[in-house]
Amino acid sequence: MAGSKSAALRAPQAGDGAAHTSRPGASDIHARLQNAILEHRLLPGTKLGEDRLADIFAVSRARIRQVLTQLAHAQLVEIVPQRGAFVACPSPEQARDVFEARQVVEPAVVQRLIATLTPAKLAQLRRHVAAETAARLAGDQRAIIRLSGEFHVLLAELAGNSALARAMRDLCAVTCLIISLYNAPTRHSCRSDEHAELIDAIAQHDVAKAQQLVREHLAHIEQSLVLWPGEGGDDLESILRE
Ligand SMILES: [Zn+2]
User: Fold this and answer.
1) How far is CA 53 from CA 13, 33, 45, 48, 234, in A?
2) Which domains, and CATH codes, for the chain?
3) Where is this region: Disordered (predicted)?
């Protein structure tokens, strides 16, 4: 078990043995934990013991605690008093809240991006979608998951509003957890052709179409999740008050 957790946390390109030549800083540990969570190598509910993580990264427990607190602020980690830290497990209700928030935020992101669009930004978006397509062709599941989420963060970063970008980073990270919890088997988080269509609408400065596409895209992701067990069968109030 310890071996598999070490493997999940190791940077994919780091060579065995060579990775221990220097102690990783807090930001490096943060990035490795975050990537392992976002790529679904560490699954929701996984215990993140301070001692084990301190051993794995060869740093103090205080440094681990600092990183876990940061990840808790980003809602990727849940800290339970007396029990420790776990990879967060968003509830179906939290998942629906996240998609409702994204339906509000992302049309605004797209509008602002079109207003500030440059050829360089457009080229960067097209390069990103090309990387997504390459990952799909290679069957690289980890890269597909990560790049799908990063596409939406990139839209917000290129839109040039730092508050929107920060909100999108948090929303996309939680979405990644939600997908690993509730996605129907064999479904992907984002359909690559929908990203390409969205970029075409952005390139044409067609705000209405781009906003419609982004809303539909988010609805497709939400529909691919299993968030509605029993179609409201757990709504005791409406069932019992009849
Ligand atoms: Zn997407």
Assistant:
1) 19, 10, 16, 7, 39
2) 22-87 (1.10.10.10), 92-227 (1.20.120.530)
3) 1-25
